[in-house]
């Protein structure tokens, strides 16, 4: 692109063909209270310092439970949510600093596929008009007539008949609607597609169709994906690399097979062991790491390691007061791109540290940390905007 | 303690069924529209201490089945037939008042979305004591310590304080625990759990499933588990019923049904789930969607989506045929699963 942002990329990304670099991104939502004047009384720390790189042509999976900030991070990458801090460098341009027309034009390269296909498609627009809208906005087509061949091509690519053009979203099933959503994202020839829970609202049999479709389209058009999902099995299936998020930061990052073969962070271990596997024999024999308690409120995150309140490997030192950074561990057999944010990863891996019982801490989802100096908990009227992210959805 | 619970469970399991559903039909009828058979001749048994799974995708009739058993379907606009025999009484023949005496006492239910099934303006503790007041004739003061005990038993930390909390002050997992506490208040003999973990995160889901498993083992309560998640079924249910288009298409104990699925739908479902323990091979989805179904009255509803249909599939309705502990509704069963 000819637009050059104020911050040309400085990271050594050329060797890997890096398409997107996220550096220290934070998204904090203010919690306001007051009758006449809104006073900021706290923050929801939805995303709190994330670094990641996505290479051209790969699928990066972002996985975590609801409220961990994965959807907010996805939105921040597209600048749908303006990052409080940090840089999002896409193809050499810092998107976080773009505004107005420049940003609008840049959006052609970054498209999004939403979770709920029904609420993200305008019910009063025909499929044709839905698909042409983006093309017109980016000057790829003057009118629907001119775009016709391209539209047929798009529908064919996502496996819909060309008769679909004159229909409206309500005339389609959930899986077909998601195909329309994908076709719309494809219509402007994007380089990166951010898919936020693309299959979680679909029935399992249809889910597999859409997962396969995403894979086929990637091969055909050379797309790069950022897939955000709570379902680890789905993420494992489609991703090349995976980042595991917990309370606003990435706790572990590795190539998909490595992560599942050798999870290093205690949270990843617990998460993987909690996923039910449709095989009674495995279910009967495997050991589960049951976490106690709930995810702490992102408006009042624990100090030190965010996971220490629920961690079965928590140690007396460091865990409570020192926030671990994402780092490469030196363990035999663990590749260099497997990073983990845990002080004790080596000792846990070698078995030197053993898990212990954890006392459940009750979490009040409405509590948040007040500003410095103001102790005590105030009950907010609304739990904050950030909690809307990534609900497990209906699954069916 | 657990050993005796296991022993008691093994004893009771051979007993006569506690709940026996026969030819249950639920038809939704709107004026000027074709009647819709949501549940179309479903029969199954639940023995004391047994966990029975009803599995299927949205629209297969699993939730409507449970609502019909509980007598929670509206009177207007639908027709219910068949029998639901609970310990010698046909629940479908009871009056509303008689049903109210049983609901929450003999049979209890845990719903999918705990926030919308708890009353937002009543503290959780009161919602637990309500059941005790209604069925046990206790007054609120006497019931309060019991409610705290129940909350403690389902793993809510600090129950004496939590008892005063309103639902919005609890997390999703905590609310689901509270809902389970309400369901267990009168030690029901049958618990129906309708997608109890679907709205929860995986780590919380694992906690709730472990809790349900433990409760079933300790109390000998029979459990009907309604879910779309075959993984949940694999770890929890003794017997699995797979539903499609309002009919049971396959039934069997959990080990054989996962090892050798005979119905193309069960087999297809297992092939379309991305698995955590398997490498990234291509999924084999079931083509089409439920909208393609044929009517059951002269065909197999699944035929248009089936991987191996034969001519007879679109001409006659397959019957549910039982062999040993397996039952199957298919003209052309799978010989070589996946």
Indicate the topology:
The complex is a heterodimer of chains A (396) and B (338).
Chain A (H helix, E strand, L loop, with lengths): L17 E16 L5 E17 L3 E5 L6 H8 L7 E6 L2 E2 L5 H7 L3 E4 L13 H11 L6 H14 L16 H13 L5 E5 L7 H18 L2 E6 L2 H7 L2 E6 L2 E7 H6 L4 H9 L5 H6 L41 E2 L10 E2 L4 H6 L46
Parallel strand pairs in A: 3-8, 3-9, 6-7, 7-8
Antiparallel strand pairs in A: 1-2, 1-4, 4-5, 9-10, 10-12, 11-12
Chain B lengths: L1 H12 L5 E10 L7 E11 L4 E5 L6 H9 L7 E9 L2 E2 L5 H7 L4 E4 L3 H4 L6 H13 L3 H14 L5 H4 L9 H13 L5 E5 L7 H18 L2 E6 L2 H7 L2 E6 L2 E7 H6 L4 H9 L48 E3 L2 E3 L10
Parallel strand pairs in B: 3-8, 3-9, 6-7, 7-8
Antiparallel strand pairs in B: 1-2, 1-4, 4-5, 9-10, 10-12, 11-12
Short characterization:
The complex is a heterodimer of chains A (396) and B (338). With 396 residues, chain A is an alpha/beta fold.
Provide a descriptive summary of the structure in words.
The complex is a heterodimer of chains A (396) and B (338). Chain A contains eleven helices and twelve strands. Chain A is an alpha/beta fold and 396 residues long. Chain A has an eight-stranded mixed beta sheet with strand order 6-7-8-3-9-10-12-11, sandwiched between helices. In chain A, strands 2-1-4-5 form a four-stranded antiparallel beta sheet. The longest helix of chain A has 18 residues, at 204-221. Chain A is globular and about 70 Å long. Chain B is of the alpha/beta class. Chain B is built from twelve helices and twelve strands. Chain B has helices at 2-13, 62-70, 96-102, 114-117, 124-136, 140-153, 159-162, 172-184, 202-219, 230-236, 254-259, 264-272, and strands spanning 19-28, 36-46, 51-55, 78-86, 89-90, 107-110, 190-194, 222-227, 239-244, 247-253, 321-323, 326-328. In chain B, strand 11 and strand 12 form a beta hairpin. The interface between A and B is large, with 62 and 60 residues.
